[in-house]
Every structure is written in C-alpha cells, then in structure tokens.
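pls ignore typos typing on phone
NAP + seq
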Amino acid sequence: MDTQFYMPVRVIEGEECVRRNAALFAPFGRRALIVTGKSSAANGSLADVTAVLDANGQAYEIFDRIPQNPTVECVREGAEIAKRCGAEFVVAVGGGSPMDAAKAIALLARQNIGDLFAQPIGNDALPMIHIPTTAGTGSEVTPYAILTRNDKETKQSISAPSLFPKIAFLDGKYTESLPQNITVNTAIDAVSHAAEGMLSSKAGAASDALARESLRILLGEYESLRAGEYSPAVRQNLLRGAALAGMVIANTGTSPVHTLGYSLTYYHGVPHGRANGLLLPAFLRRCFEKDAPLTRRIYAALGMDAEEFSEKISALLGEREKYPEKELRAWAHKASQSRKSCAVSFSEAELYEVLQEAIGYSE
Ligand code: NAP
Ligand code: ZN
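k done
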C-alpha cells in the first residue's frame, strides 16, 4: 500500500511570534471571529491577538464561550455569530477545545450542513489561524475537530482538508499558566498521539520520524512533568513535541485508545489526555502479544520497556479511577463499532480486557 505525508500548516515557533508576525494576519481579511475559552484573557494570548488585529485595522468579535469537549450546539452558535458579523477568517486561541470548535465554526460559517457527521462533509471553510495555549492535542496542525455528540453519547471526529489551519503560532509563554494536572494530562495526550501514530496502518517514514522525535522531546521532559517544575525552555519543548505529534496523527489518525478514552470523558468527565494515559500502557501490552516487532519499535521510540512505561505513566496519573464492569463492557462494545486505521486489530472482547487491566472494577 502507498504511504502519504501531507502537512499544509505553516508552523511558526518562537518567543513573541504572534506580535512579531502581525503582517501575516493582514491578508486574511477585514473581519475576524476569535474563538476561545476563558483562560486566554489571563495568559496573554488573547491580548496579543487583539493587539495585532487592532494594529492591522482588522475588526473582530470574540466568542469566548467554548466549554471543554465542545458540543455541536456550541459550534452552531459560533457559526451564527461568524455569519452575523461577516467574519472572513477565524483565529482560534486556547486548548484543543477552542481549536476544535473553531474548525467546526469555520466550516459551518461557509456551508449549511445538517448532519456534521455524515461523511464526506464539504471542503469549504473560513481560513484559520490557530494559537495553542495547551501543549497536547496538536489540533493546530490537524484536519480534525472532535465534537461531543449527545445524540450518540460520545465524542466524534469530523475531518476535511480545509480544517487544517493556514498558520499555527507556537509560543510557550501562553502555556506557563497551566496548572500541573492540565500540563501532565496534555503532555500524555501528545505522547499517546505519537505512539498511536506509529501503530497505524497509515504510518510511513515521515510520520514515524516525527513520532520518534516528538517522543524524544516530550519524554526528555519527564522529570519536569513529575516534579511540576517548568522553565520557559521546557514549556516550549512540550509545545513543540505536541505539535510534532499532531503532525503524526494528522496523517495516521489515532487508535482504539482514543475511542475507548472518549467514553471515559463522555460518561465521567475524565480529561482527554488522562483517559489516554490510563489506557495506553495496557493497550501497548496487548499490541505486543499480537505484533511484537511493531510494538518493539514503539518501546524503542519511548526509550523504555513495557514495565517502565507503565510505571512512569502511573506515577504521573496518581490514583486510578474504577468503574462498574457493566460500563466497561458497554465502552468496549462502543469502541468496537468505530473504524480506526490501527495496524493491530482488536476484537470487542480484547478491548474489554484492555479496559479491565487499565481501569478495573468498582462494586
Ligand atoms: P481543553 O479542554 O482545551 O482545556 C482544558 C482546560 O485548560 C480548560 O479549562 C481551559 O480553559 C484550560 N486552559 C487552556 N489553556 C490554559 C492556560 N494556558 N492556562 C490555564 N488554563 C488553560 O484541553 P486540551 O487537552 O487542550 O483539549 C482537549 C480537547 O481536544 C478534547 O475535546 C479532545 O478530544 C480534543 N483533541 C483534538 C485533537 C485534534 O486533532 N483536533 C487531538 C486530540 C484531542 P478555557 O478553555 O476556558 O480557556
Ligand atoms: Zn488526543
């Protein structure tokens, strides 16, 4: 089978890169919709964006009501605002939630789509600039938006080439205000992206090279993650590692780790990265039993064996959640219905065993 690698996002990385590149915002149009959450007002990212737009004479509205795990209803509301204010482009500022919401808003502002999840969706969206303030999802370099779907009680991805932002600005200073738990959860999400990308049947030389480099960078900061102490250089490294891992999944997709994790998030509010961290070590152990050569390459990229990886992730996660057996069975069933490009296939019973090992039961 052919392999492909595609990365159309212009990624600009460095201190004060937003303000220093104000000229790059100008060609996007006269009016912007800024899509964000609440924290961007405090970490300097929103002020930098509005300063740049003001200096360029570009008008904007701010839609700052994006919740964690954004819903279809919320992005429809954002699209109405984009249309009403005549936005010609979208600037996303925040973690994966505002960045994903911005993509769906950009799409719905251009197209009337009744069912966002009926594939394929059209490829017309407002152009976007993304500025991450967490170091994890890599959404700034992917064509995916993950939305909460209450009708199906899950989270689901939509994807189209036009959902790739045009530009991503990576400035670690915006992540300095992240509390320890969010820093750890988001870093684990990025580790999971790199490892899951290597497991994909779509993996190729370029995505594997990025995955290895991303894991080298992210796990090189393990002691900082453990201690909760971050210099500006460490913050920048985590952001860079997460973006590289995003470039991996932009090409490979994720694995059943993510699909199983969506249930933990949907039903119990477990943060996305934490959900992946709970599941990934057990999933990899299972992969090893099914495809030892492939999984060995992933442990080599992680720079440790299965046991050390489990211990290190567990040390970051602390006490594990436990849920009733009935729920674990339902989540395994749900994940077995979802198509993934994982090179190692898992039956529903095997997915259940992963959950059993990773989560365990409560009475
Ligand atoms: P998030 O849901 O965007 O943010 C988590 C929390 O961190 C929110 O309370 C947020 O507040 C706060 N926060 C963000 N930046 C902060 C900062 N600099 N300082 C202090 N607090 C800050 O979390 P995330 O892990 O980045 O994103 C998770 C979402 O991304 C999930 O929905 C997941 O499914 C999705 N995802 C998407 C992709 C993709 O390729 N598109 C890949 C992986 C995951 P405010 O939001 O109120 O500012
Ligand atoms: Zn993820």
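The domain at 10-175 is CATH 3.40.50.1970 (Rossmann fold). The chain has two domains: 10-175, 180-362. more later
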